[in-house]
Amino acid sequence: MADLSLLQDSQEDTDGFGVDGYSSESDAIIVPSVLDFVSQDEMLTPIGRLDKYISSENVFNRQMVARSLLDTLRAVSEDERECVSVLERIDRLADDSEPTVRAELMEQIPHIAIFCQENRPSIPFAFSKFLLPIVVRYLADQNNLVRKTSQAALLVLLEQELIERGDVESLVCPVLVDLTAPDSNDDVKTEAMAIICKMAPMVGKDITERLFLPRFCEMCCDCRMFHVRKVCAANFGDICSVVGGEATEELLLPRFFQLCSDNVWGVRKACAECFMTVSSATSPEVRRTKLSSLFISLISDPSRWVRQAAFQSLGQFISTFASPSGNAGQYFRDEGNWSETQTHSTNAETPAVSHNPSGCEAEVESVKWLHEETEDRVSPISAQDDPNPNPQEEQEIFNSFQYWRTPIPEISLDLLEKGEEKGEEKNRSSAPALGRKQLEELIENLEPHIDDPDVKAQVDVLTAALRATALDSGLEDAFLEPRAAQSNPFSSQNPSELLSENTQRRDSADDSDVSDGSVNPDDERRSKQQDVVPQALLDQYLSMTDPSRAQTVDMEIAKHCAYSLPGVALTLGRQNWHCLRDTYETLASDMQWKVRRTLAFSIHELAQILGDQLTAAHLVPVFNSFLKDLDEVRIGVLKHLYDFLKLLHQDTRRKYLYQLQEFLVTDNSRNWRFRSELAEQLVLLLELYSAQDVHDYLRPLAFCLCTDRVSSVRWTSYRLVSEIIRKLSSCSSLLVGFLGELVEKFCHSRKWSGRQAFAFVCQLSVEEECVSLDQFSEHLLPPLLLLASDPVPNVRVLLAKTLRQTLLEREFFLSSAGCQQEALEHTLVSLQTDVDKDVKYFASVHPANTRVNEDAMSTTSSTY
Fold first, then answer.
1. CA 208 – CA 197 distance, rounded (Å)
2. What does the alpha-carbon distance between residue 573 and residue 327 come to, in Å, rounded to a whole number?
């Protein structure tokens, strides 16, 4: 509480501090007592200082009281009565008329709550009785700063689990629900709804459904404040994830369709951003029949910002169609013939892929939302998994026609009959859609304004609908009917008819695509057909590489396409790679290096999805082009070099031995992290190649990196050299030659850093058991002991550490008899009498709890 004594009366500063005062009756000098210098506050107890300044008229003093409450509690923590007294004064301070004092108090509440939780025996009910009511009361404070601070404090308390579940249900939730009442203040209502949405994942499904869900559904239809609707739309996915699929489809999905057709583009944009999490909470049937058509409407939205958000979420939305059973495509053995052919089931009973609803975690350079599934899906399938081992059926599956050509889809007669019946019902119950003539008139009227990007987007949509009129499909209804009618699946028209089987197989070619005259257009259209996701969604995804999209939607739309491509490929499976191949090649040759960089960081994931045959045919050429690209692109390939090369055949993998040295050349010589990453990858690559290949190709790279100008690169390379010794230990002739070269290049080096590196490599080789002790004693120990006479103390220090902490810890060097043991002991004695005190210290004692590698690097920290 010493900080509270900042503003004192002027009289206190002048009384009793003069040393030149004389008595009126004598000439004796009055010497002030030491007690006169003691501040008046220091004579008070913590409670007394608190009482003195809590009623001060100075606002700054009251702010300091709030800021020092935690220190006061710690000072009186041993006395329960005084702790309760401090908490009672906190309640008094909460009624302060100054907003800055209340805001300062609220900032300290989480810290005080943690202290009370740690000292529950002394103050058992302190938080629920004194602190929580203040937080709840400040949620409705008239001052915006106080409300914002209390909201942040409430979220912190919930995250730290400092509020009892009963208190949340009885004290917090009713207040928040009341703040969102129709007659509440607009700003307070918006903030309270935001807090409810953030609290839902913390309080769980039960409380959310009983207390929050009815008011949330009501706020989604708030006609007065679009800010409230925007908050609901932005957090819609989180609410769906909490309440589950049943409540989502029955209660939330109708509200979501209304928000997607909202008059304010910001609300529709928020819906597009959370579309993936909403889709993850629904059943496959709802996802395919209702959400797909709704997403098409967002992609063709008049607002550019809505279209931009929709295209960014398109790949993630497509990924929700993946089957979680692990049979997301054709998975065959990487080396050999295909052992089984599996296709995606379009059955509505197939559950959806579960995704993490946290929004910001998805933005990473590599595709994290598919990585865990990829490891489970790409696995060899044995013959035991074949549910139908009939040889005759197997022969039919693997005939040459299906192997070399796209299989003709099997059409069920029952589905056709149902489709005809649905079509008749639709013609009877719903208004007729615009015909071909009306579409042509609309396009003709919009053509004079084609320069407007928004008009051009509408023309593209109408043109696609015009092409679809040739098919027996209801897709034109999704594009041309009024927004409210086509967006709401609970209207009189059944939205499941918007994306029929014929719609999923419609023409996917863009207007901007120029096909080769030698290619049959029908074959080209059939090459893009699949039955895993609605064809309309895939067509929109493939159009993201269209240059016109960059002008009408987003300049970085190609980057978003590249980012989500591995997830789309995983969803479609290997058997549908032909649908994405042209798009992938277009992205790989994109003029923007950010697009190529995104592909470079995920090419190993895509290779794991496709398998070795498709990888060798389609990914290896792209990988080779990335090797010659800019450093910003090459680093993506380099970081996952081992992950990609291990998926290739041995013959293909061996060809890259000649190209590894190209990574030593960078656009900027100061980019030392590039070379450090190369050294780390080379350590992993050792297991992929034979000892002879390591000796011929990786050995020169290791020696080159060991002489790098940057210390971090060199130390990583020393570990690489020790691993090369381990790899060559299987071939004695190669090992002897390599150790001899190691002695020549480092132990006899003119630079002291090279001689120190030799000592460290010897130490590491013994510590990691990279070489047998017999071979070490024969080839490395004699030159190592010669470093005892090195003129540089840093070399001798590392030698002393190596001898004392590594070699003498091995029974081999203690029990062996001969000249080597004598030389070792003689060298150690000479180091113990060294002129340098550090050398003598490390040669004489064995420091406890000291790691060898850290000691070695600390020795050179001042010189590198």
1. 9
2. 8
Q: In Å, how far are 73, 128, 161, 162 from 114, measured between CA atoms?
A: 12, 12, 10, 7
Which positions of the chain have pLDDT values less than 70? 1-43, 120-124, 324-439, 441, 445-446, 448-449, 451-457, 461-462, 464-528, 815-819, 845-864
Q: How big is the CA angle at 566 (ends 563 and 568), to the nearest 5 degrees?
A: 100
Alpha carbon of 537 to those of 276, 504, 548, 756: distances in Å?
13, 9, 18, 62
Q: Tokens at residue 110, please?
A: 């989480």
Which distant-in-sequence residues (6+ apart) come within 8 Å of 751 by Cβ? none
Residues 574/532, Cβ–Cβ less than 8 Å: no
In DSSP terms, which residues pair with 68 in a beta bridge? none
- Which pTM was predicted? 0.68
**C-alpha closest to that of 88 among 51, 34, 33, 141:** 51
Strands of 414-566, DSSP E: none
Show Cβ contacts of residue 599 under 8 Å, excluding neighbours closer than 6 positions.
562, 565, 584, 587, 588, 622, 626, 636
Residue 624 CB neighbours (<10 A):
13
As a whole number of angstroms, the distance between CA 233 and CA 793 comes to 68
Structure tokens at 750: 């003119």
Q: List, in order, residues 6 or more apart from 785 with CB less than 8 Å away.
A: 823, 824, 827
Question: Which of helix, strand or coil describes residue 532?
Answer: coil
Find all residues with CB under 8 Å of 65, minimum gap 6, and list them: 4, 50, 53, 54, 56, 93
Please name the residues in contact with 755: beta carbons below 8 A apart, sequence gap of 6 or more. Answer: 746, 747, 749, 787, 790, 792, 795
Q: Distances from the Cα of 814 to the Cαs of 23, 523, 712, in angstroms? A: 87, 78, 34
